[in-house]
Amino acid sequence: MLVVAVLPFVFVAGFLVLIALRQRSGGWNALRGGPLLLLLALGASYALGFAAINADPTYDDNGWPEFVELRYRWVWAAVFGLLFALVIVPSAFAFRALWRWWRSRRCYDRDDAAR
User: Fold this and answer.
1) Quick one: which of 4, 10, 19, 27 is 20 to 30 A from 80 by CA?
2) Overall number of domains in the chain
């Protein structure tokens, strides 16, 4: 049951870090960094988990199909979202690092006639 509380806890912690960075910097420039990417990746993983449980709301309970009611799908979505977050969050930060590396390499590879 503790798994259900992990995803909302990490989401709230990321949101609090984002607010603290905004207060420290005095502007919204902190929204460009990692905390916003963390919140977006966690939101995407929860949405993917909710879509997965709504696509097929039944599960096999010892050979008998059981239907998951809507009031319990939110909890199942948190569990599935946490499992998806194990892949989505590191992938998002890896793609961000690759994008920043590629962007920094691109500025050095330009051939300027002014040199």
Assistant:
1) 19
2) 1
50: containing domain: 2-104
CA distance 40 to 105: 26
Residue 110 placed within a domain? no
Catalogue the E-assigned strands of the chain: 58-61, 64-67
Torsion of CA 34, 39, 44, 45, to 10 degrees: 90
Q: Which whole-number Å values give the CA distances from 71 to 6, 26, 32, 45, 78, in the listed order?
A: 19, 41, 35, 19, 12
pLDDT tens, residue by residue, 104-113: 887 666 655 5
Domain membership flag for residue 114: no
pTM of the predicted model, to two decimals? 0.74
By the 8 A CB rule, do 34 and 14 touch? no
